[in-house]
Amino acid sequence: MTAPSPRPAARRPRWVAAIAAATALVTSGPLRADEPSPAEAPRDPNDAPMMRPPNGQPAPTPVKRSPALEPPYGGDRRFAITLAPAYASFRLPLLGRPTIRRPGAGALIEADLRLLSFIWLRAQVGYSAHPIDETKVEDDETGELNVTANSGVLHATNAGIGVAAGIDLGRFLPTVDVGAGVFRIGTPEGALAGQRGQACLEGSVCDTGLACRAGTCVPAAVPEVHGGVSVDLQLRKHWYIGATIRYFALMVQPLDFPIYVIGAARLGARF
User: Fold this and answer.
1) According to the model, what pLDDT value does residue 114 have?
2) Distance CA 137, CA 252 (A)
3) What proportion of the chain, given as a percentage, has pLDDT over 70?
4) 125 exposure class (CB count in 10 Å sphere: 0-12, 13-18, 19+)
5) How many Cα atoms are found within 13 Å in the side-chain-facing hemisphere of 158?
6) Residue that wins the pLDDT comparison between 20 and 28
7) Which residues lie closer than 8 Å to 242 by C-beta, 6 or more apart?
């Protein structure tokens, strides 16, 4: 006797499947417009994934900056040499002459060597010529005019070394300098004892800037101190212009300050 074959599964009518799909659509509700599609990026920043490290921040990107307005020329400054035509004023008590200011003209040469970022070693040499008039004094007894000092040219020469401190501001370099050196005063040939080329006074005394040698007053170097300020403006990488003013005093006559003032227009080169 053969076994009965299995009965095929009952097929669901199509109308039943349609009703089930409609029921599911009604119960789930329509798709809202404010719900983002899974393919879209989240609109709320808090729903975004964490940013890259470090510290949850994005990797830094270099910021593009415009070129500097003032090229750092000052950083290249190691050695500088300056030539400066100068106006000078000389004022010092001289034997047989009134103590007045005597203007003149000359030149100044400077050489700078940088020691630190804001300190330079400065050596300077200067010269100026000052015309002076003849001086006469009336004799109280005879009424005659006696020459007490001859006319001519007073030559002022100085050489010294010191330090200069400044702030390098790109194209601008303001500096303050102090130093010491020697000063040589060349007065015209004298008319009285104690003046240049004349016999020394009692006690081997001579006029300012002169020394008694073999009984005669001759020019000699006198120690001096000086200080000044200057400002330079860079034109090119190696060329600059500027201005300076410097005051001088003699160590042997510190109360007569300043005996000498020089103002100069600077032209120089730095390397």
Assistant:
1) 92
2) 28
3) 72
4) middle
5) 32
6) 20
7) 82, 173, 230, 231, 232, 233, 265, 266, 268
Give residue for tokens 């130093």: 179
Instruction: State how far the Cα of 194 lies from the Cα of 218, in Å rounded to an integer.
Output: 9
Nearest to 106 by CA among 78, 87, 132: 87
Amino acid in position 41: A
User: What domains lie within the chain, and their CATH numbers?
Assistant: 73-130+154-186+223-270 (2.40.160.20)
pLDDT by residue (tens digit) across 207-263?
988 999 999 999 999 999 999 999 999 898 889 999 999 999 998 887 788 889 999
3-state DSSP: the chain helix, strand, coil percent, rounded to 5?
10, 45, 45
State the virtual CA torsion across 208, 213, 217, 218 in degrees, nearest 10: -80
- What stretch of H or E contains 26? helix 14-28
Q: For residue 24, with 0-12 CB atoms within 10 Å meaning exposed, 13-18 middle and 19 or more buried, which class applies?
A: exposed
**Tokens standing for residue 173:** 């370099």
Phi, psi of 18 (to 5 degrees): -65, -40
* pLDDT recorded at residue 57: 63
